[in-house]
Every structure is written in structure tokens, then in C-alpha cells.
Recover the amino acids of this structure.
């Protein structure tokens, strides 16, 4: 199985901060990398697919980059509704696997 | 706009079979792949498996011996059966549509999820 490792596991930040979350794959996955946001008690929501493509309806302050084994999710200016848990997910090969999550909290 | 809704018993006894249904509305189940994903309370996400609209399946090896995913295109349903459950199978179960391009595959949308507790 491909292991996905996110860092940090948790992060405290303030509104209007710029934050970056990193995701590393245990082997080359090309651009088969997606990012999801999960608010408490809610289902995950797709933010970024194919490493850098912004899902329709997602604010442009979210961006993704990377390829191969190293990926990042950046939020350019945090808004109150962005405090949530973020997961990366590889779809290069089955079993599809997720990172352990990064919990973004208000400082 | 496609919407997914999971349904089924919220409580299952140990050693019994968990059975859930995902109802797809606002669009056809045909020509897409449909996945089940679960999340134990307070933990991360685990992909269970997927099925195509024609019935081809792919399961997580960690669950393969106990999982069956079926599709009923006439009812726009996808179902999940997980046998011989234990407390470790307690989780929120999500269904999701799998989309793809030439360079990736992703899950969108997701259902709201349903909590299944395994307990006697």
C-alpha cells in the first residue's frame, strides 16, 4: 500500500494567515493526489484534485502544488470557515489511501 | 446536482453482517464508479472499495474477505455488506462517486455519512 504522511498533524493559525500543509507519498504517484476538507460532523469535501486543480465552487484562496512524492496545500488568507481538518488522498493505485489528517485550529 | 444518501441500521451485533444502501439522486448511476469509505470515531479515513455501474469491483485487501459491494442501476442504489463485524468496524460509513481525468481520480460528491455501531 502507498503510505501518505501529512505534516503537521495540527496547526494553530489566525484569520488572514497564510498556511501550508504538506503531504508526502511513500512512492511516486505522479499527480494522483487530492485534498479534502472536513468540518466537524460533516462529510469530507473535495477542494483540489489532480494535485493542483481547484474544484468548482472552492474559493481561490485554496491552491495545491506538487508531483511525484511531495505535495502542498496552501490557504492564502485564512477565513473563519477554513478551520477544519484537511486530508490528502492518493488515487494512483488501490487501495486508495489517505493521510492521517491535519487539524487547523484558531490561535 | 448529484446527491448521495446512506441508509441502514445504526446498530449491528458482533459477528453479524452490516448492510448499508447508498441512494443516488439528481443523476444517473450509470457510467460512474461508486466507492464506500469509512471513518472510525475521531480517526482518519479508510477506503473500503468501489464498484462500476456495470458491476466490476475492487476492494481494500484489508477487508476483501468480508466485503461485498453491489449496484442496482434500476433503483439507482449502491449497497455495502460487511460480514463478521467486530467493534473495530464501528465507524461513519460514506458513499462517494469516483470521477477521473487523464491524470487523476477523485471522490466527489460524498454522502452525509451514517454511523454504524457494533455492539451487543
Amino acid at each position: 500500500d502507498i503510505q501518505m504522511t501529512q505534516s503537521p498533524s495540527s496547526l494553530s493559525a489566525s484569520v488572514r494567515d497564510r498556511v501550508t500543509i504538506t503531504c508526502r507519498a511513500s512512492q511516486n504517484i505522479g499527480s494522483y493526489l487530492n485534498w479534502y476538507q472536513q468540518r466537524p460532523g460533516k462529510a469530507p469535501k473535495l477542494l483540489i484534485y489532480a494535485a493542483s486543480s481547484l474544484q468548482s465552487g472552492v474559493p481561490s484562496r485554496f491552491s495545491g502544488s506538487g508531483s511525484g512524492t511531495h505535495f502542498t496545500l496552501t490557504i492564502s488568507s485564512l477565513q473563519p470557515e477554513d478551520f477544519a481538518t484537511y486530508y490528502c488522498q492518493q488515487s494512483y493505485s488501490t487501495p486508495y489511501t489517505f493521510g492521517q489528517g491535519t487539524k487547523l485550529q484558531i490561535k | 446536482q448529484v446527491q448521495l444518501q446512506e441508509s441502514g441500521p445504526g446498530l449491528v451485533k458482533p459477528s453479524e453482517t452490516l448492510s448499508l444502501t447508498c441512494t443516488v439522486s439528481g443523476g444517473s448511476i450509470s457510467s460512474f464508479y461508486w466507492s464506500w469509505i469509512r471513518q472510525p470515531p475521531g480517526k482518519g479515513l479508510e477506503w473500503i472499495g468501489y464498484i462500476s455501474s456495470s458491476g466490476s469491483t475492487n476492494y481494500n485487501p484489508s477487508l476483501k474477505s468480508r466485503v461485498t459491494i453491489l449496484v442496482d442501476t434500476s433503483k439507482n442504489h449502491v449497497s455495502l455488506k460487511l460480514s463478521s463485524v467486530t467493534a473495530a468496524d464501528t465507524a461513519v460509513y460514506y458513499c462517494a462517486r469516483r470521477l477521473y481525468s487523464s491524470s487523476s481520480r477523485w471522490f466527489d460528491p460524498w454522502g452525509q455519512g451514517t454511523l454504524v455501531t457494533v455492539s451487543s
About this structure: The radius of gyration of chain B is 14 Å. Chain B has a mean pLDDT of 96. Residues 7 and 66 of chain B are 20 Å apart (CA to CA).
